[in-house]
Amino acid sequence: MVSGNDDNTAGTIDSSAEFDRLARRYLDLWQAQLSGLASDQAVTEQIARLFAAANAQVASALQVAQGASHAGTSRSPSAAAPSGNGADDVGELRKRVEALEARLAELESRSRSS
After folding, report:
1. Which of 19, 45, 76, 107 qualifies as a cystine partner to 82, CB 3.0-4.6 A?
2. What interhelical angle do 89-113 and 41-65 show, nearest 10?
3. pLDDT tens profile 62-88
4. For residue 63, which of 55, 51, 95 has the smallest C-alpha distance?
C-alpha cells in the first residue's frame, strides 16, 4: 500500500525537475538573444548613444548636486561618432564604456573633494 506522503514526494521531485529544466531553457534563450543583440551593428550603435546620453545626464546631475550656478557652461566633450562596420564593434563598445566609467569616477572624485 502506498502512503499519501510518497505521492506528494514524487510530485515534488517531478515538479522540481521540471522547474530546473524550464529554468535552464529560459537562461539558454536569454543567452542566445543577448548574443544576437551583441553582434548587431545597429544595436551596438544605439547602446553607444545610450551611454553617451546617460553620461551627459550624470555629469549634469553632478553639477547640480555640487551647486554649480552655470551647469550648462561646463559641459563634457561629446562622445565620438559611432564606429563603422568594423570587426570588433563589441570591443569598441567596451572601450567606450570604460572611458565613460573613468569620466564618471573623475567627476565623483571632484564632487567629494569640493
Report:
1. 45
2. 0
3. 888 887 555 455 555 566 555 555 556
4. 55
